[in-house]
Amino acid sequence: MTKFILYILDKLQWLFKWLAVDYHSLRAIVEVKLMMENRRVHGLQRNQVQKKEQSNTFLKSLLFQAIFSFIYGLMILFIKQPVYLVMMLSFAFIMFMVAFNMISDFAEVLFDTSDNVILLPRPVEGKVIWMARLIHIIVFLGALTLANSLGSIVFTTFKFGWQAGLLFFICVILLCLITIFLTSILYLLLTKVVSEEKLKDIIGYAQIAFSVFIAVGYQFIARTDKLIGTETQEIVIKWWHYLVPPAWFAGVMEAFVAKHFELPYMIFTLLVLIVPFASLYIINNYLSPLFAKSLSGLGTPEITEKRAVKTAKKSTFLNVLSGIFTKTTLEKSAFELVWIITARDRKFKVRAYPIFGMLIYFIYNYFTQSQKEDVNVLMILYYTMFLIWIFSQQIYISDDWKASWAYRVAPLTNPGEVLLGSLKSILVKVGLPIFIIIGAILIGKAGFGMIDDILFAMSSTLLFISLNVLTGEFSLPFSMEMANAKVKGNQWLKFLFLFLVAPILGFVHYFIGKTTYGLITLTPILLIIALLLLKEYRKIGWDRIKE
Known about the structure:
There is one protein chain. The protein is an all-alpha fold and 547 residues long. The chain folds into two domains: 65-108 and 134-299, no CATH class; 316-544, no CATH class. It is 73% helix and 0% strand. The protein contains 24 helices and no strands. The chain has helices spanning 2-11, 13-18, 23-37, 57-78, 83-104, 107-110, 114-118, 126-160, 162-193, 196-221, 245-257, 263-296, 301-311, 316-325, 329-344, 346-352, 358-368, 373-394, 405-409, 415-446, 451-466, 482-487, 491-512, 518-535. Helix 14 crosses helix 15.
């Protein structure tokens, strides 16, 4: 792919010379950027094991999104609705995917200030640096847009003919220009109102949201069969359609395919012909210089110092919380360490927090499938157990695992206290709030009769997690490499617990829940057993801690 892009640039060498850009410097910078892009971890690849240096990661990411586009594009074939409605969904999906990829995946490159540090002190013109960055953006977004629209283009061509497919492709290109324009405005606003570190946090949250969308989107796409065969809806164009770009392009497709040339569709056509090119003009003449100026201000020592002063402040709330739930100094230290790192480590948050997105799907089912209400309640509660357990296993993994040498040189005579403090931190920070939120939702819909179910599920979760003390070896917090976490150790045994014990607890809950006082009676018993097992963590010695 890199060779192909460079071949195209060589053919356009005359254009860059006409723009007074040093082509040889430009080509060298672009080649390095594309090479780095193909080695950078993209999207959901962040959660995969990396045993060796990655290659062709960008192509793999494009392939994944192209497959997803074919799955989503099936609605063009099977949903029997007017072209306008179907196309509006298709363009909205493409626009969303491009925007969120640009925010969540490409932002770390877009806001990379290494160009300023490495190239500006050297005899390289600022125009060359910006042009190289612009070419990188065009290549990234062009390939990304094509991947996310490929399925829709194919199915549109198959259903409406090659002319409609070609028009759809042109519309996608114009939609991409609008998406770049809107995203650039968002970036500029962010660089003006937040610091570099805060901006990175926002990007991290966008990455989490994108991962959640992918996970939940698969589930909702699987339910699109309910739209197939429904009564055909009439097209009702509302005022807000004139403010939403996907509606404009859907109007163009409706006018071309269904031969509708009424006034609203003519307005949509004018918007499609004017707004993308106006956006391109504004980007080139106004946003690009502002954006380059904003980038030059990032990474300054002043911002870093402000961040250092802010993070140096001691958290009274955390001290009080750790004092309540821990007994020893070592346990308290581990509690606070895990609490702070899980809040600050962006890579940890991107890896761990998206798993909670699937709860959205289960809660949605609970409110839309009332005929299976009791089963849906158990699915929500015990999927929550599954999520908390998975999250608790993530605290042992870190990209900075080599720093764990500190555990060995520190005077730790009882590593079990570190494990117990870490586990308590996750239960208090993640387990308790998520059960409070889920409990409030269930009580809000079904009433206070759900309290015994919620308490039983919380006790079952605590018991399930405390059963880990019966397994063989343990790892200290953030001491395990990602690759080792999935190919070594006793993970198979822990997953055996997951797939055997969790369903057993679920079945017990289901049948005892049909009795009058079964859950109320059994809940304290499970809680006592769980607390006794947690105490066993303190007895874990160095002989059970693996390197």
